[in-house]
Fold:
Amino acid sequence: MTSYGGFEPVFCTIVPPHVLDKLAQHEDPVLAGPARRTLQRDAFERTHRQLTTVIGAPTVAPRADAGTEKPQRTIFDARHGTDLPGKKVRGEGEEPGKDATVNRAYAALGATFEHFLKVYGRNSIDGGGLPLDATVHYDREYNNAFWNGEQMVFGDGDGEIFLDFTIPLDVIGHELTHGVTQHTANLTYYGQPGALNESVSDVFGALIKQYSLGQTAAEADWLIGAGLLAPRVTGVALRSMKAPGTAYDDDVLGKDPQPATMDDFVRTGRDNGGVHINSGIPNHAFYLVATALGGHAWERAGLLWYDVLTGGELAQDALFVDFATLTVKAARERYGDAEELEAVRKAWEQVGVRTL
Structure:
């Protein structure tokens, strides 16, 4: 395991607890059983992460080629167990094997590395060439994927509600971006700063997918987790940045609870104060900025969000107003009194977040 000094890595999953809670209450054990086991496993991993952070983890010497501007990927197979990292099945530069899940994880780690390097000049998630490790086939019918502060972990899904978690590129980009946040602003994982933490991961997860596909802001679907839901589910993804609250409306999962504006801000003690729910508000603000500016979203809108995340002024306990104000400042510093500044101001105004 790796120690990150003063950083406090958290346990972050792509599927929110409220989704699994709803699923776990279903009368059909085929649906409820995997959800309950996933919640139990998530609770264990979350506690383990907290204990590791408190007592400290042993430091592993960096690999000889760490620090070079090339990805250093290693994929492990948990073989449906829960011991991490598992058996090594593919290393950097090795040819694809027969396991599509392994190949997708390997490719997605590379796509994420490439995006941060070529667009923002960032060498891996820590900026210093940190090797990227991922474990696939974690547990049985495990309905989640997570970043545990040290590596990526992917479940295969139950096949009824969720499919293989390596399918959507933005899911992998989302989780790895938690690592970028961990090494930069280190946003507290609760309430509004926690929702910003989740939103930043959605933003860059979406940008990584768009960059890989060469899509403009107008061409993109702005969905997080498209392709993850099984055919029986009435829905298209886990979240929609274009239209928060519309990603799914299903008789098993319920309706997507994300708000698009502060008028519908959700106050709750669950899900770390609604971090996966209220992230819809800053998500929608980014979508509005990106589509107002047009072209490739990573070229201007993405740069502004990256400036704020890495600029050193974003406090760990930042609220939406703090983040919004810093994006206005970043737009002015990069572009002056141009259309970028107006787009940022207008977007936050539309979602009901004031800027100072």
About this structure: The beta strands are 12-13, 73-77, 87-91, 132-136, 145-147, 152-154, 223-224, 239-240, 249-250, 254-255. Residues 29-55 form the longest helix (27 residues). The first strand starts at residue 12 and ends at 13. Confidence is low (pLDDT under 50) at residues 1-7, 52-61.
